Amino acid sequence: MNSLTHNPYILEMNNVSKTFPGVKALDGINLKVKRGSVHALMGENGAGKSTLMKILYGIYTPDDGGEIIFNGKPFNPSRPIDAIRKGLTMVPQEISPAANLTIADNFYLGRELTKGKFFLNQKEMDEKAAKILEGLGIPMDVTVKMSEVSVAKAQLVAIATAVSNNAKVIIMDEPTTALTETEVEQLYKIIETVKNHGIAIIFISHKLDEVFKVSDEITVIRDGQYIGTKPASEVTKEELISMMVGRDMSEMFQRERIEISDEIILEVKNLTRAGKYEDVSFQVRKGEIFGIAGLVGAGRSEIVEGLFGYKPADSGEIYIHGQKANIKTPLDAMKYKIGFVTEDRKLTGLFLNLSITDNMIMPKMSPYLENFLISVTKAQRTALEQKDKLKIKAPNVEVITNNLSGGNQQKVLLARWLLLEPDILILDEPTKGIDVGAKAELYKLMVELAKQGKTIIMITSDMLELLSMSDRVMVMHEGHQVGIIPHQELTQERVLELASGLTHN
Questions:
Q1: pLDDT tens digit sequence for 53-86
Q2: Facing residues of 200 across strands?
Q3: How do strand 9-20 and strand 23-34 relate by DSSP bridges?
Q4: What predicted TM-score, i.e. pTM, was given to this entire model?
Q5: Direct distance between the N- and C-terminal alpha carbons of the chain, in angstroms, rounded to an integer
Q6: Domains in the chain, start-ordered, CATH in brackets?
Q7: Rounded Cα distance, 297 and 412, in Å
Q8: 28-44 pLDDT tens trace
Q9: b or e along 38-56 (b: 16 or more beta carbons within 10 Å of the residue's beta carbon)?
Q10: What's the rounded Cα separation, in Å, for the pair 239 and 61?
Q11: Whole-number pLDDT of residue 1
């Protein structure tokens, strides 16, 4: 008898770790997925879920010392196609089909059915694709182009394509984010059908209700570490939250608390952007560090993008120093003395191929002009002052920014905005991807800026960072503001209860 029939697990990840420069992203993770089951993978933003799945999908290579067993054999994919050929497929959060091809053509993209050597067998592809979709309970006209298909249907096509690829495991990453309630219910039915085909599903979601609705087992990871696996029927929502947040609070950065002025610097009234956030209202005072919390898709980054004019709100009002502000572009925001350190410093923040000096002076070059040319001496003097002030570790200010560590790159970006002397500084995931020492330095700098009267709005997925640095925290859930918590009432459990939609303030 085949020994595989005795092994209930289609996938086993044992002691899997992943280190990036200066950061241990995963540390000894275990994940065992049973055949024909739905296994939820849970953890806060930044817990390591995506990194773990990218290892499974051949995007990242794990550190030495762990092992992955797939269908009873060692599994070490070096690219996604390796994983797909073995029977592991991912349905990402954002589907990117070949829009100009039909549903059937997308089904067989890269493995087209042919007549002889040179001609596509379109009829056979259409018939087989239609049959698979019908078998899953989602009949569609497979001759329709993907550009004409809704997000929900594109997702179902992706799942059906995985089934047609003889998938044994399908990873679903936040599959309900862009779906209506009716579409979500349809997805649940498809998941059940896929299970009945003997296919296992790794289900990644921050929505507790749907995790309990579809999952057989739940694995929790926290801060890159394995916390535990439990049958969904034997764990409560409260226990799950405790597993997700129960860190050692002694690791918190102990910041100096300062007296915050009563002066309101920023007031937001009923800010709304269709499909992203609705009726968001809050006030932030001079010298306050105001945290914004929420899970994936809650609308945190979108709100600050609206404040900065990067993606303006559809309606609502913004007041700065009591005066109504009209912010439609980042240039407008800068005129109102708002600075924005973006989440992805490499993609939307820094010019990596330019020097530290060039990056710092880029937004405002007028102070360094002499006879219509930039005075290198003036620019370098300013950059050197910022380098010393922010303790940027580099031999000189002409070093190419790409050669700096993540923490020092973040300081260069921060220096750029500080040179513009903002009254309001937005920090989106300010310590993402930097080491512990660099984090502590940035925390001290944030407190120093608050002491100087700067107003700081901070978005972070790091719970310890949120709790230790914030004077107040606004919590978002699926585009809605569900509470503002003062520092003295701030706990991990309270934040996650609100962020998960279990309670409202």
A1: 999 999 999 999 899 999 999 999 999 989 999 9
A2: 169
A3: antiparallel
A4: 0.63
A5: 59
A6: 9-97+149-246 (3.40.50.300), 249-337+423-431+443-504 (3.40.50.300), 346-421 (no CATH)
A7: 29
A8: 999 999 999 999 999 87
A9: bbbbbbbbbbbbbbbbbbb
A10: 32
A11: 42
